[in-house]
Recover the amino acids of this structure.
């Protein structure tokens, strides 16, 4: 069985104090939940403050990015082991904002995936097509390429720490969610692809999250889809009440 994961990507929001305030409110709201893996991903500067706040709770910490080197002359970068030292259990890689705004390609994302596996950190590996790619029938080719190149060289052991997040670019921050059917169709495709690239066991065990304008009012039917194992949530994770409702999906 795949334990559902609901992960909040706080993007470039919240000071240290605001991040602690948010996670404290969330902690109180989800204290009774033990069948969902709850993850929050604050900005780098708030990681250690949030780590201290969630100690002993069921909330786990993720970073929004990493650099695929352990140490050295890489000004401005942060390595997987430093993130682990700061209390992170997961790191998000491949987010479409980093692909589009920072020019990250599949090869660079793959280096990050290997660096995270080497550091013993979990990976939330994001993929997704643009509207243009979907409308011109390139969606499955794009997703196949992103998975094949992004996970290249990761063995089945490393895959046990990988969570895939399907985030159609046209649905991120737009208020336009994929329909339940669209999400299920792509998630089923991704699970079949994992079976082709790895084996039945990896395909059955890997969690595939949906991301893109997930809100309290659409989470229930998305989570009812057989291949949707959780959600990666941006905007709605910035309000404790909304995020708690999403975590409490029915
Ligand atoms: C995201 O940034 O990963 C995301 C899904 O954002 P939103 O929920 O705001 O669409």
């Amino acid at each position: 069985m795949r334990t559902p994961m609901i992960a909040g990507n706080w993007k470039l929001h919240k000071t240290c104090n605001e991040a602690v305030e948010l996670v404290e409110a969330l902690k109180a709201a989800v204290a009774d939940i033990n069948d969902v893996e709850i993850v929050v991903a604050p900005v780098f500067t708030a990681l250690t403050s949030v780590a201290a706040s969630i100690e002993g709770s069921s909330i786990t910490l993720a970073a929004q990015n990493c650099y695929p080197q352990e140490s050295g002359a890489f000004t401005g970068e942060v390595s997987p082991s430093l993130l682990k030292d700061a209390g992170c259990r997961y790191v998000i890689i491949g987010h479409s904002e980093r692909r589009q705004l920072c020019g990250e390609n599949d090869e660079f994302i793959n280096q990050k995936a290997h660096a995270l596996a080497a550091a013993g950190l979990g990976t939330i590996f994001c993929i997704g097509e643009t509207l243009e790619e979907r409308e011109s029938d390139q969606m499955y080719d794009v997703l196949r390429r992103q998975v094949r190149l992004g996970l290249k060289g990761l063995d089945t052991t490393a895959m046990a720490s990988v969570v895939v997040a399907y985030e159609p670019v046209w649905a991120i921050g737009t208020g336009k969610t994929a329909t339940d059917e669209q999400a299920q169709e792509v998630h089923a495709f991704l699970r079949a692809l994992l079976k082709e690239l790895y084996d039945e066991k990896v395909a059955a065990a890997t969690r595939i999250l949906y991301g893109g304008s997930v809100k309290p009012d659409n989470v229930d039917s998305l989570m009812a889809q057989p291949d949707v194992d959780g959600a990666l949530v941006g905007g709605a994770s910035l309000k404790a009440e909304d995020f708690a409702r999403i975590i409490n999906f029915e």
Residues 9, 167, 172-173, 211-214, 232-236 surround phosphoenolpyruvate (CB under 6 Å). The chain has twelve helices and eight strands. The longest helix spans residues 180-197.
